[in-house]
Amino acid sequence: MSDRSGPGTAPRPEDTARALLPLVGGAANVTSVANCISRLRLGLADRSRVRDADVRALPGVLGVVEDDTYQVVVGPQAVNAVAAAFGRLVEEKGGGETGQAGQTDTAEELAERGAAIRAANKRRNATPFKLFLRRIANIFVPLIPALIACGIIAGVTGLLRNLGWMEGALPALTAISSGFMSLITVFVGMNAAKEFGGTPVLGGAVAAIIPFAGVADVQVFGTALSPGQGGVLGALGAAVLCAYVERRVRRHMPGTLDVLLTPTIAVLVAGLATVFGLMLAAGALSEAIGAGADWLLGTAGAFAGLVLGGLFLPLVMLGLHQALIPIHTTLIDLEGYTTLLPILSMAGAGQVGAALAVYRRLRHDAGIRATVRSALPAGLLGVGEPLIYGVTLPLGRPFITACAGGAVGGAFVGLMGQLWATTGSTAIGPSGWALFPLVQGSAGIGPAVAVYGGGLVVGYIAGFVLTALFGFPKGAVQAAEAVEEAVAPGSTPG
């Protein structure tokens, strides 16, 4: 049975932080503290000082993920408070605690060991594909809050327009919701240039060519360009090229001329390449992505939904889902919504159903049931990590049946898109119930909401039934319950 903490109140964030610090090598071993939606992300000088087994067993910790940082999964409800408390402890203790008795390394020795370990970890994780995904995430993830905000406002605006309400306010709401999307290429360009070692504002400058209305006066191979042609993919290519040219020019430019000529040459070269090549190529690629998505969901919607919904949880675990961000953004730019996100969201529905089945079947495992209760609200809102690392993945089979439940839900959404109405999201980021304000589709908001809601219900049911039937080894639950009952107070051993 699980060794998770039993029923009762969750540990206080301060207690979790205080218990965690010595397990990761003490304050002297911590080089940075940050957090995302559910993980505490720690930069460590010496990875060998971490006591992994003790970290994983710590009450309040749902799992550990290793990447370029050491990531401790504590869940969305606790992560901000734990990160703040942990950061305060590191500042208070400074470099005086090593976390292991008898070690008195100097700062220089610790820095040397940390540098060597970081270099080894970097070599191990620096495959071209992992680096590509990390860079894609660094470029697009910072844009997600604005995409969510503008997407929700756009959805509300569309609903008001359909109902004929507040017509005087609609132009203002439209401007608020559309302004960011009209200039998203500039933000992509700035982030891309920064990520590839260039000056952010120069990347934004060449990316700004794409939405500029004046490109309609430019003839390329006898055809006029269209403002926005190439979209975020064109902006990405333009900014990366600009950063490359800037770095190369700066190496050979005398210092007295660098401030004048380097940015000028970089913008000119990358700008000409954007106007006379990248906009055409990226525009063709964007149109191919849109046509491919329409064809896939229009002709093989159920099968496509089955595959996408079933594979998304493993993609999230491996970090491969970041590669889909440019595709989502391109579809939103082309069609106003991405049809892939509602299908992928069904993976979370399958996991919620699987967790409910685990809760029902393991009724004598107080630790697992407490974890399900605490993680389920986040799962319903589309934050799946607490359920992944706290419930389904540690149990093994329930993770597989959760993926199968997501596949069934994805197949339902895909089939409805094929037979009735496609369903999409006007922004990326949320899923689960949190996606409802962003839902849009080919037949309007009403059918889209109905299809998406129906998919969630199907995913919940499929995940629950498949886990109840196939999520546990035959006889294992009954044997575990018999042991629990045999040692329970008041029972009579036989």
From TrEMBL:
Active-site feature positions: 36 (phosphocysteine intermediate)
Keywords in alphabetical order: Cell membrane, Kinase, Membrane, Phosphotransferase system, Sugar transport, Transferase, Transmembrane, Transmembrane helix, Transport
PTS EIIC type-1 domain span: 134-486
Membrane topology classification: Multi-pass membrane protein
Subcellular location as annotated: Cell membrane
Chain segments annotated as transmembrane: 132-156, 168-189, 201-222, 257-283, 295-320, 340-359, 399-421, 449-472
Annotated PTS EIIB type-1 domain residues: 14-96
Primary location group: membrane
Pfam families per UniProt: PTS_EIIB (PF00367), PTS_EIIC (PF02378)
Superkingdom, natural source: Bacteria
UniProt keyword annotation of Transmembrane present: yes
Keyword Kinase belongs to the record: yes
InterPro entries: Glu_permease_IIB, PTrfase_EIIB_Cys, PTS_EIIC, PTS_EIIC_1, PTS_IIB_1, PTS_Sugar-Specific_Components
PANTHER family registered for this protein in UniProt: PHOSPHOTRANSFERASE SYSTEM TRANSPORT PROTEIN, PTS SYSTEM N-ACETYLMURAMIC ACID-SPECIFIC EIIBC COMPONENT
Name of this chain's protein: PTS transporter subunit EIIC
Organism: Nocardiopsis suaedae
